[in-house]
Amino acid sequence: MIKLSTRVRYGTRAMLDLACHYGNGPILLKDVAKRQNISLKYLDRILLSLKSVGLVKALRGAKGGYSLSLSPGQITLKQVIEAFDGPVQLVECINDKNYCQRVNTCATHDIWSELGKAIEATLKSTTLEDLIIRSREKKKSSDAMYYI
Fold this sequence. Notes:
Elements: H1 6-20, H2 29-36, H3 40-52, E1 56-59, E2 65-68, H4 77-85, H5 107-125, H6 128-143
Antiparallel strand pairs: 1-2
Helix pairs in contact: 1-2, 1-3, 1-4, 1-6
């Protein structure tokens, strides 16, 4: 099974939350934690990781909090995932041809490579701005009332 880590999933939710409030100044960690239902302590570690790679910035003090370092349209899902787990890689032999002796004769190697490229292309082309739009669309459709 291919599975994203909890840090990636929560980190993406935190980044989306900050993106939704982009331009409103720094956002308090406790507010993000409450809206995203993530423990404050865990979220603090997540945002420190995102800060260390330059995706978020922190402002200390009474009017402090976290904000995106770039606009939501400039941050991709690929950047967020790689902040936690490094390069997206389905199997070791894709990036390290010496990992397996069967690379040149293995039919599945080609499939894993193609799949990895498709995943990477999707993550590279999806920005936080795209997720904001999707989030708003989902909210609209869930707010719709149907009468019979």
